[in-house]
Amino acid sequence: MHFYIMTLFPEMVMQGLGTSIIGRAMEKGILSIDAVNIRDYAFNKHNSVDDYPYGGGAGMLMQAEPVYQAYRAVEAKIAAGKKADGDDSSVPIEDGTPAIRKKPRVVYLTPQGKTFTQGMAEEFAKEEELVFLCGHYEGIDERVLEEIVTDYVSIGDYILTGGELPAMIMVDAVSRLVPGVLHNDVSAEFESFQDNLLEYPQYSRPEVWHEKRVPEILLSGHHANIEKWRREQSVLRTARLRPDLLEKADLTEAERVLARG
Ligand code: ADE
Asked: What does pTM read for this prediction?
């Protein structure tokens, strides 16, 4: 999976994503992350990429052209990457710039977008490359958004200062679904939100901590009973903490009764 992040703060995203599991997956070549600095495509001598909004109003807007040129640079990088991989689906266009036949998905991070979910992460994880566009100031000139953006995504109903943290969150959530990124492929198998149920409680050594014992059943070695107990715990926990999810969960009649308490 190749991620391209168009941003005014490339160091922020590279530092944030360069460690831990994502960093290791990059070292192994399973993922690549390329932060493209939109300011490199400023077209005036002050290197500025923002201007006042027509019609007045508070704040500044990111201008269309630097964002568009940054996007064109990403397209060229994707085409070059595909060529290096022996994929000839990129074709040169009139001005000699390599272009890509299949447009990449370009995600604009905005509080106006659809709220990001695990289901969306699963969808995005099927792509070969994903491009993120991080806005700043009061937003981005609408015309370039119309031209390049395929998905408008929000990470929740609150306003942040820019799209970098949302992009990092999405890269993290998508990356861990890419085969080989997690050590243990089963660890992505049962977890919160699978089947719209929250994860059951988990315990590690010691058996007693602060006078709290690990539930006896987990020490029994009886796998079928343990699975049954875990499923019940998932149902109970979801009923208590996220009853909204239960409506979409696929429960047996007995589990529905358990959830009602
Ligand atoms: N940019 C600012 N706030 C945001 C949010 N909640 N989600 C995505 N992008 C944003």
From this structure: 0.91
